[in-house]
Amino acid sequence: MTIGLDMSGEQSTVSELKPVGIYREMYRKPRTDLPSLRDSYTDATIEDRDLVAQYMNSATPIFDVAADVTDLLNPAQSIPSGPSLLSDGEWIWRADSVHYLANYPLTIPPQFLTHVRANAYRPAPGVDVANPLFDDAITAYF
């Protein structure tokens, strides 16, 4: 699924965005449908973790939140605008998701890694945040 324009210039439809780096502990009422941050540690090395984080940081901001959040793994750190949402039109994540995936040895879904690598670490332009279907798709994560 892609949110934005298809090859003919028509808007595509949206049913669901795939979450990456969104954990149940990020919410006041923990969400059992999301993975646990503390259970997401891995011994696997992701050689291009920095490039994946750059990809995530350069995606389209879809919902800005000016509030900082405390790093759940290092309470001495604060993450600016942590609950803000970003997307590449297929996947969705929070600003603090990028922080966690860049700074801790956490699992990154293989499907997301394949997607990012296939896009040469550059999110596709054209995410249409004004599309009402996009609003429906992000509601689950905010």
UniProtKB/TrEMBL annotation:
It comes from the Bacteria. This is Uncharacterized protein. It comes from Nocardia acididurans.
